[in-house]
Amino acid sequence: MFQFFPCTLDKRARDKECPDMVQRFRHPVIIFLFLGAAIFAVDLLLIPEPVSAIHISDAQRAALRKDLERRPDFSELMLDQAIRSWLDEEILVREARRLRLVDDDPIIRRRLAQVMRFYLAESTPIKAPTKDELQRFMLANPERYTRPAHRSFEHHFFTGDQAEERRRQALDNLRAAQPVQSDAFAHGRLLRKQVQSQLEIRFGEGFAHRLWALEKNDQWVALNSTFGLHLVRLTERNRGGAAPLNDVASSVQKDWLLEQRKTVVNKALDSLRRRYETTP
């Protein structure tokens, strides 16, 4: 077996123990090592690393231009910078894929799943609903379109030391169809479609409960609130309940479309599940 070891410095020992230097370098192992090193060096120096081509499409370039042209300070330099940023982003995305970074990142996984759901939802066109379909959907989901009971009323407000006396005088004037001098009120004289909880918060529970019990009979009634003294006349008494379709058609159509897209996604997901064998 070939042995490679340094020769001794002693001449007589060297002549006796060391083989000829030329013969040493003719050994097949040494030749193999030199050839391998030479090939490796040539590979590094002469064969460049493969380069992946990245081209920005005309459509993408046009989209970048259209977005930037909305700005008043648009320039071709801004477009060039946007294109360079897009190319850098594409490089980073490809490197992330090459390094398989997307496989272990939970945020990216959730985002990809979300995008896939959007794709599945938009992949199947949905026809516009008919009025009968919207009506059936509204009846099947009454809790979404039920309006709470509300009251509308007008009032005169009185505050200060003479508030009670001024209110009595105003009531007489109103009954006689005479002008009334009352104080300004922050929320106005006419309050429309007030639900009971709003009235309790704004005017106090006592005011809200008494107003709620009033009948719409055009009579002025003296009520006290947390603000002061009032003369109140009920102008609308609504019991609430299901709203007419014409009043909530846009909301019903939006909800109907969301339900249809959800159904489309679920069907597509069922089809995809058959392609995979999953273990819970």
Total number of strands = 6
In helices, the fraction of residues equals: 40-55%
Order of helices and strands: HHHHHHHEEHEHHEEEH
Tally of helical segments: 11
The shape is: elongated
Distance between the termini: 60 Å
Structure commentary:
By secondary structure, the chain is an alpha+beta fold. 54% of the residues lie in helices and 11% in strands. The protein is built from eleven helices and six strands. It has helices spanning 11-17, 21-25, 28-46, 58-68, 76-98, 106-123, 131-140, 163-175, 196-203, 205-213, 245-273; strands spanning 146-147, 150-158, 190-194, 221-224, 229-238, 241-242. A four-stranded antiparallel β-sheet has the order 3-2-5-4. A hairpin with a 4-residue loop joins strand 4 and strand 5 (229-238). The longest helix has 29 residues, at 245-273. The radius of gyration is 43 Å and the shape is elongated.
Which helices and strands occur, and which strands form pairs?
Elements: H1 11-17, H2 21-25, H3 28-46, H4 58-68, H5 76-98, H6 106-123, H7 131-140, E1 146-147, E2 150-158, H8 163-175, E3 190-194, H9 196-203, H10 205-213, E4 221-224, E5 229-238, E6 241-242, H11 245-273
Antiparallel strand pairs: 1-6, 2-3, 2-5, 4-5
Helix pairs in contact: 4-5, 6-11, 7-11, 9-10
